[in-house]
Predict the structure.
Amino acid sequence: MATIELERVEKKFGESYAVKPMNLTITDGEFVVLLGPSGCGKTTTLRMISGLETVTTGNISLNGRDVTWAHPSERDIAFVFQFFALYPHMSVRDNIAFPLQAQGESGDVIKQRVSEVAKMLRIEHLLRSRPGSLSGGDQQRVALARALVRRPAAFLMDEPLGALDAEFREAMRAEIKRLHIDQHATTVYVTHDQIEAMAMGDRIVVMSAAVIQQVGTPAEVYHNPSNLFVARFIGSPGMNLVGGVYNDGAVMLPGGNRYLAPPDWVRTLNNTVGREGKVILGFRPEAARVHEQGAIAAEVYADDMHGGYSMLHLAVDKDTIVHARASRELHLPIGAPMRFDIDPTMARFFDPNTEAALKREVVRRE
Ligand SMILES: Nc1ncnc2c1ncn2[C@@H]1O[C@H](COP(=O)(O)OP(=O)(O)OP(=O)(O)O)[C@@H](O)[C@H]1O
Ligand SMILES: [Mg+2]
């Protein structure tokens, strides 16, 4: 079991930052996902935690012990890579046993631990096989078994499912989550797939351009993104973001639409929106309610069927398309005029200059 703490940890390669000064505490037993686009510094962060990469400055501690300069083998952390490097000439059993043999464990202990972990991952029937004869999913199970068999204090996983096809990914996702629930080992899991992050993380660390943008539960980053990057990056499609001008309780939106701000936002908007009144209204596709008396007029631009629901693309004006999730039964012809409202509990506002989310001031009732 382990608590991992990063204190002002940064990594520079030459003059360029792979990770800008970062603070992060991962609590014992937590499943934390590092999420962000390619090149944002996820792998570098993980490698610094494991000790495979040195930090440029800052401190890393494990269970309160400073391990900043400790060798990887002194950290009691297991690393699972995307490209599982199994030894092709060894049986599955020997592959899994390898880390224990390297530690000098006795034959009895090795035998018992290998059979335990093989049972847990349901690969007992494969123990005599060679890795080359296994499917990708089974190979990844073996790689996981090899990491688990050591019973490390923490797991670091760098896109471990990246090489698998969609069906296996989903099965393995459930498996890793299940393992975590059973074992409760602190896990740091890297992915650039926000759906995977939402499905697996207790908390998500959203990164972009070497900087943490937000740390929160899946619900927090989805419903209350801290800035425009997170709003766009989380969700598919991302949050609808529409520029407008705020004045006296209402936002003028494109297409001549006047949107009354939800009452609990008025105070915040009065206090924080600058003199020009520029603000960005954000709402998730499921916050849009299509109905005849809706406050916002638009035109149906496209309609994607998604099986259980349909995703309407609505043109508020020629430059502003928003997405609205609608029931499967709602069929609107392309080009048809329609109206929608926004669920007032799901409206969000952003500052177009800083790109930060406005924080709603809670009015305390006496
Ligand atoms: N050994 C290195 N030498 C120089 N630059 C590096 C090195 N390793 C990483 N970088 C740079 O640091 C930045 C962060 O890389 P990193 O691999 O951590 O990103 P990532 O978020 O894991 O991306 P991906 O999703 O593509 O795996 C990138 O700009 C990368 O080019
Ligand atoms: Mg990477």
